[in-house]
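Appendix B, Record 12. Input sequence as logged:
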Amino acid sequence: MNRRQFNAAPPALVGGTSLLAGCDDGRSLYESAASQVWRIGTLQGLEAAALHTELVRYATLAPSSHNTQCWKFRLDDGAITILPDLARRCPAVDPDDHHLFVSLGCAAENLVIAAAALGLRAEPSFDAASDSVRIALEPAPVVESPLWRAMAERQSTRGEYDGKPLSPDELAQLERAGTTERVRMLLLTARPTLEQVLDYVVQGNTVQMNDKAFVDELKAWIRFSGHDAVRLGDGLFAASSGNPVVPAWLGGLMFGLFFTPKAENDKYAKFMRSSAGVAVFIGAADDKAHWVEVGRACERFALQATTMGVRCAFVNQPVEVAALRPQFASFLGVGAQRPDLVLRFGRGPKLPPSLRRPVQAVIV
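Logged structural output:
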């Protein structure tokens, strides 16, 4: 679930972008599109196909690696099936499609929660034959969970937090949300421990930053201008991590000049040291079905955090670099189990949200 972007350019160059102030960078267009994406829709008068389409819309508000939205949805009588969209793979950062199936789990969890708010009971199951998640639906009493309301506010907030700890009760709420019979979650909050996690983040980030395939893949998913972001409806919008919104040609130049291992490592040091803690998710087994379950648990955690005014962002470098992952597992004391996701959390300002493609674009 890597959703990182280029580091903010030095003040001289960022200031230089003021020369483009008279140009339309698409910011207002982007804000209008985002307001349509991130909304809680009406619960009245939805039936049959319209109801299923609305459920798909909620499902697509889930996170995905580089905001690739690597999913497709098939609408059947009494069920919705979520399928992987392999055309939207990220082979450099996610060579075994781990994050892709985690993303399907995040989407499935959104759908389950939204279904309850729309008067349906949703039962997901993983179909190994088709690598898909089938969600059976049947009428049930309406349950409007606070997690459903939080869907319109949840985001991967890639910025600095306030550095203040969460209360024991808040940590307990997050632990309940992110732990299941098939997914174990570790909450790390001690400062010395977080510094050790930061060491793994820096090691992994350095490896990735020196991998041309990784850098090229990441750059391909960055949307430097509002116009490009709205036109494509996917990817990582520059402003979503506090970077300047500029024409694509200038963004590409800035990326090439200032996206360096040192700049990124310095940024992640600030991010980690401003966080209240880190959550690490570990599936009971290392297979696609459990990767989906990890995604479901992670999304519940993120939605619960959102209800509490707590922000989250992925720092997955220690689990994305295959050579580093066993060392990180040893540090965590989980033996041969695979650590699946690393999520930092804390309180901080909201940044511009990412966009989503139209619902009809993901229904097959």
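The CA atoms of residues 79 and 136 lie 4 Å apart.
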